[in-house]
Write a structure and sequence with these properties.
Elements (H helix, E strand, L loop, with lengths): L3 E6 L4 E6 L2 E7 L8 H18 L7 E8 L2 H15 L7 E6 L9 E8 L3
Parallel strand pairs: 4-5
Antiparallel strand pairs: 1-2, 2-3, 3-6, 4-6
């Protein structure tokens, strides 16, 4: 039986869960919600990198991503510009992007990723 490791758990959620050689990083959003979509995306991706590091991996081992955007028409291109610059060369994960209502009105993007841990 594989061990389940939970990172930064509170009564509602864990920020990341490591199981069976994979890390599941829960929905991440920017801390500074006054930023535009590019700024919120950059800040969100920085947080994801931190949780990947805590789990013993990095963005070059991403397997899949889900990106939730408040306004696709307005923000898709700018979010993609930041995303494309951030992903590791030749290591882009599978990805789905959708528009949705967010948990707070000033959240513009939320990102969920799954990655492989270690070799």
């Amino acid at each position: 039986m594989s061990t389940i490791t939970r990172i930064e758990t509170d009564p509602r959620r864990s920020r990341a869960v490591v199981y069976n050689g994979m890390v599941f990083v829960g929905g991440m959003t920017a801390d500074d919600r006054s930023l535009d979509i590019a700024g919120q995306t950059r800040q969100t991706l920085e947080k994801i990198e931190g949780y990947l590091a805590k789990a013993g991996t990095d963005k070059s081992r991403l397997l899949t991503a889900q990106i939730w955007i408040k306004d696709l028409d307005r923000d898709f291109a700018a979010m993609n510009e930041v995303w494309n610059a951030w992903t590791a060369p030749d290591a882009a994960p599978t990805r789905a992007t959708a528009q949705c209502d967010m948990g707070a009105p000033d959240i513009l993007v939320e990102i969920i990723v799954t990655a492989a841990v270690g070799e």
